[in-house]
Amino acid sequence: MFENFDPRDGKRLQLLDENGNLNSEVKDLPLLTDIQVLQAYKTMIITREADEWAVSLNRQGRMPTYPPVKGQEANSIGSLMAVNNDDWFVQAFRELGGLLVRGVPLSMHYLYFLGNEMGSHYEPKKYHVLPISVPISSQLPHAVGLAYAELYKKTNKITLVFNGDGGTSVGDFHESLNFAGVWKAPVIFYVQNNQYAISVPRHHQTASTTIAEKAFGYGFTGVQVDGNDIFAVHAASRIAADHARKGGGPTLIEGFTYRLGAHTTADDPTRYREDEEVKEWKKKDPIIRLEKYVLNKKLITEKQIEKLKKEAKKQAHAAFEEADSFQKESLENTFRYTFKNMPPILEEQLRQRRELERGVN
Amino acid sequence: MFENFDPRDGKRLQLLDENGNLNSEVKDLPLLTDIQVLQAYKTMIITREADEWAVSLNRQGRMPTYPPVKGQEANSIGSLMAVNNDDWFVQAFRELGGLLVRGVPLSMHYLYFLGNEMGSHYEPKKYHVLPISVPISSQLPHAVGLAYAELYKKTNKITLVFNGDGGTSVGDFHESLNFAGVWKAPVIFYVQNNQYAISVPRHHQTASTTIAEKAFGYGFTGVQVDGNDIFAVHAASRIAADHARKGGGPTLIEGFTYRLGAHTTADDPTRYREDEEVKEWKKKDPIIRLEKYVLNKKLITEKQIEKLKKEAKKQAHAAFEEADSFQKESLENTFRYTFKNMPPILEEQLRQRRELERGVN
Amino acid sequence: MQALTIIAAVNDALMTEMQNDKNIVTFGEDVGVEGGVFRATVNLQKKFGERRCFDSPLAENAIVGTALGMAMGGLRPVVEIQFSGFVYPAFNQIITHVSRMRNRTRGALTAPMVIRMPYSGGIRALELHSESMEALFGHIPGIKVVIPSTPYDTKGLLISAIRDEDPVIFMEPKRLYRAFKQEVPEQAYTIPIGRAGIVQQGSQLTLISYGSQMKEAKEATALLHKDGISAELIDLRTIYPYDKATILESVKKTGRLLVVHEGPQSFGVAAEIIAMTSKDAFEYLEAPPTRLTGADTIFPLPSAEHHYMIHTDQIVKTARQIVRYQP
Amino acid sequence: MQALTIIAAVNDALMTEMQNDKNIVTFGEDVGVEGGVFRATVNLQKKFGERRCFDSPLAENAIVGTALGMAMGGLRPVVEIQFSGFVYPAFNQIITHVSRMRNRTRGALTAPMVIRMPYSGGIRALELHSESMEALFGHIPGIKVVIPSTPYDTKGLLISAIRDEDPVIFMEPKRLYRAFKQEVPEQAYTIPIGRAGIVQQGSQLTLISYGSQMKEAKEATALLHKDGISAELIDLRTIYPYDKATILESVKKTGRLLVVHEGPQSFGVAAEIIAMTSKDAFEYLEAPPTRLTGADTIFPLPSAEHHYMIHTDQIVKTARQIVRYQP
Ligand SMILES: Cc1ncc(C[n+]2csc(CCOP(=O)(O)OP(=O)(O)O)c2C)c(N)n1
Ligand SMILES: Cc1ncc(C[n+]2csc(CCOP(=O)(O)OP(=O)(O)O)c2C)c(N)n1
Ligand SMILES: [Mg+2]
Ligand SMILES: [Mg+2]
Description:
Radius of gyration of chain A: 21 Å
Largest sheet of chain A: 6 strands, parallel
Order of helices and strands of chain C: EHEHEHEHHEHEHEEEEHEEHEHEHH
Largest interface: C-D, 53 and 53 residues
Bound molecules: thiamine diphosphate, magnesium ion
Oligomer: heterotetramer
Number of helices of chain C: 12
CATH superfamily of the largest domain in chain C: Thiamin diphosphate (ThDP)-binding fold, Pyr/PP domains
CATH architecture of the largest domain in chain A: 3-Layer(aba) Sandwich
């Protein structure tokens, strides 16, 4: 399916170049419709605004540690738009765009990073999204298991799972790709290769030329796409999704991208990377690129864009206020969800804690 | 270095065919000298006899669970003969032949399987061998660490480490190959692909066509060799060793082989594999093959072989008796090696146990 | 009724429940064609097909991790870890995901799954085939840890575990797998998780044990009774959440406590039982609460394993000392 | 002398020892150029080069496993696990190899290595960044577990750990990393592993804590003394092998015991201390030995973490109850 884009031949799939021009030579690849393009663009805008607002709230002391998404938006937005809404979406932690594609309220994302577990209470039947996974790559086996369950139930649903370049070093990555290969599990493994794992550059992470080529060692195909090109991301994901749905098994997609911001708000990237490098990557910003395209194609006007951004900002502010005013988690709730039914030993501990807190509060 | 034997092109290195004929076309590969061939043959004989004796002792109730090596001898013997005696040899648990190449007394191997820790007390400076590793593939990171240490100390020593086809599924396999790739660690990863992990056939283990090709995902080379052909095993190992010693980094060698016996003496392989298959593989027996070669080449006579086998049997019996009469591990020794110096809390527990046993024995 | 060994009771529980609930799947290393190295899953693949009972690649971490995915996807996986000494690669999945998914998502996603594994020593096995590290699991919030000691309890507890809406670590005393048979009903039945069993009533000493060590504990109890010492024998059955009520009631009656298990002493199961009792039955204790457990040493290879194990006469001896104790 | 924080003392210990012994190497995620996310290894790469201080790929299991290989190869690795909540992937290496190599080979091969990791909660961190699971390590035969609570102890204990011929898990109370400074000698010095520190003498109650919780324990001790209650405060410092002698001596003097820590209660560190004391100081206990610890629940995300933490006034309140206790 990706015959012409074998990463072992040094190929990378790009459809939209840095100047917003769509490559007209590439044939037979699923393209976003104009309506989808606009939708993608809008989602990218709100993602960017929401993300920047979170960073700025952190500086104001109103938001604990937060991992910015800036520069990587096209990856999760493009790929989520290529699958169905009831396909499973298994997050790493830098897929805010994808969450918004799924219709997860932005306030939930903020709520999570405000340190409230209710921010991960996505109704599975409604969203088909797994919570953010903090231990790197440990969510990959879950994706394979979910895919197996859907195969077993013959639902024709597939699973789309994310991790990072650093995450490819973890044993879970290997075991998950291997299980998926053997089970022919309908999974798309999407690696956001943003060139760093915190401070560790990609070449210290693995000696392979690309991440995509790792798939072949598991008996399936890998493809590298320009992760800042939403057309390429979407096309590859769409092909992989169709392939999986038809019983063809897993695909590995490497989104070649860059984190423009810090690893988290607690990180200072100037310690480990050159300004020059960041500057170069800024030119490849997925939003700038798509903006040029939609303007060129007259899908939107400058004015409308301005309005859109303003509204996005407002939306982000409102979502944060909503999250910030959400009821705080109670002592009871820190106990209640340990098990379905609270065993006596926990009930007793809860009583004791209540007793202790009485003297405190 | 293995340009002509890319496993992705379906190539497998074989030099000695099933009829004992050496392929004369293959050029530029390091061949065993006649003296080495004889040495290899003798080691294979003693390995086989020792192995069969262990199985038979188990049936007599004189030996606990034991994992036979039968049919796989060429792999560890051929590769160990390709490295230096002070290169590190990191065992899995089916490398008896390799141990004998290193000069480890057979009685130690028996002692270990008789359930005495002293059977793993290989003087490192003398043997450079790590003990048998029971948790599958968990020894691979140790090999990479050892290789790093030798790099650090600039000793020019390399590390040869073994695991099985089943073991390639474990996260440790991935992480170790990946670390080795990044560190350019002087390691040879030797996978004995004997087609099964207990009852699980190779195709349920991974969907890749070969195991050797997995190396490319880590930025280095993999090669598949006929693991029942000691010439091929030796040649590949030798090339990989030279490569590693010259700073070229790791190589993955897949020895394509077969376990002719049971997984362990507790296993009944007829449950999961066909007699027909075993019969086919018996024809490929590495010893029969080499026997034909040494006879053809008149390196040895039928009579000498007979004598050799008789002596090997005797040696095995004597080694076992030596192991069996070895001093039993004491209560004290089950405590003594927990730490260099026994902390008071353990001293106290030892006193208590001694007290308790007094009533018992 | 049928007379079954513990291992046959495991198989019977799986058979019974898989028949009842087609969302149950079981997998692990050698679980399919082979039917498990101990025969726990024998005939399941034949009966329920390769989709419901199958071999996985060799990777405990992924076995547990994919099982969790299946559980979140609506199945009820029961996975086998071939020996408890090989569960450690799966530790991260257990402690960071399996045990937390309900809490993390405030109940949106749960992990109804069972991780079965043979544990315990004394069978002259290879290294790492004799582990009793249940205390590690007991310390992890969000999982239940169950250890049966009889065929009857095995079937009832395993069915409870499978039906439980939360993840259960189910540790099977492999030393007793084929040690004896017991009448076991053919149909499904449950034994509640979180409740200990009183195996023998007594008045002078509370003897608590579980799993593999119950054999020696029972023998010791009988010997003690012959000697005129009335020991109350409790089979803990659930390591977490353990049955405080039964323990405390017994200790308040007997005033003396001995806890016996195979695993290492420090930070072990007995430590928890004794710490709890020392606090909650402080005024009732008439003798030092005592543990008789494995040492803080690595389980020896076969030739010296008898030095590690707790033997019946050692329990008797220790129990006598406790009963004789005068402050 | 220099006034250092705990994190600076970690760095200072590494600097000092790496200068003394060129076989020491240190690596882990972000340990090189970055100098560690907490700056524990800052300037080490600059000073000792990329061969001695470097970034590894992201895989805790391989970090520990390769370190063991290096140790067997004659180096003395000190590895960093970025947060103790990420050590679980390395569990198999720790429990099946690092802790056993000496015993397995009857001393032919050993594992002189240190696994450093920040632990403890209360810093409003992301999930799994607030773990206190030291009891898990305490239960593993063959490793030592050390937790300092002051800059002075940090340097002395870390140097001891590095020089130890056996593997040491070194858990650093990240909540206190920058909480205060203390005079720390510039040269190398050691504090013995396995010995607790008596922080404050007292006669009416033995208060035992360690690591991150020492801050509250000290405050509580001071408040109690103000109230006329003489509490003896012990800093455990070594979780295993812990200092029985110091604990018993104190409890025999005071007759009352309170153990305070952050980790979960059941099968936790306090359980061990109390079980041991209940047996070995049985006749001296004048009140139920009590634990004040984290609950058997998952450590909450920041907005509710204060519900999980043990606060100073809770220690004071509990201590008062114990001292007031009359049978
Ligand atoms: C098992 C584990 N180890 C360490 C960490 C700490 N950590 C958080 S993010 C990160 C780097 C991840 O890099 P990558 O996979 O490339 O994702 P990115 O942050 O670049 O999106 C690390 C080391 C963790 N979360 N989990
Ligand atoms: C981590 C772990 N899981 C399970 C086992 C039990 N076990 C012992 S050998 C084996 C199969 C190994 O297969 P392979 O790697 O192909 O080696 P082979 O036995 O064929 O030589 C298994 C599952 C183990 N020793 N370690
Ligand atoms: Mg990255
Ligand atoms: Mg095999």
